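Quick one: structure tokens for this chain, please?
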Amino acid sequence: MRTRRKFSLFAYVIMPNHAHLLVWTVESLLPELMKDWKSATGFAIAKTRCERGAIWQPRYFDFILRRGADFGKKFEYIHNNPVTAGLVHRPEDWTWSSAAFYVKKTVVPVIPDIFDVPVDPNEPLWPVPWR
């Protein structure tokens, strides 16, 4: 899907009742990407469960990251979600997350893309015209 929709996936966690993704859309629009992702994963989950019907909510919630600090906060929030929910003691112990890739450098279900976050937390994540 990354090749076809042209996006980068930096962090993810699949929870029992929701998911968090940290993505950068390169060419696709986010609504198109989310529609395809929900469709593909919904069908796969339903097939595995031998169930019919919707898996995901019709909507999703997005947040635009503008600065290095935004990226870091969301990155940590995503990976700490299973800990906050009381499912594991450490983020890297949750199987359906990219946390172990970053902490242990081990194999995870989906390998994330690497992104160099600016050292300055106030630095914009992409070029801005006034600089």
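The chain has a mean pLDDT of 89.
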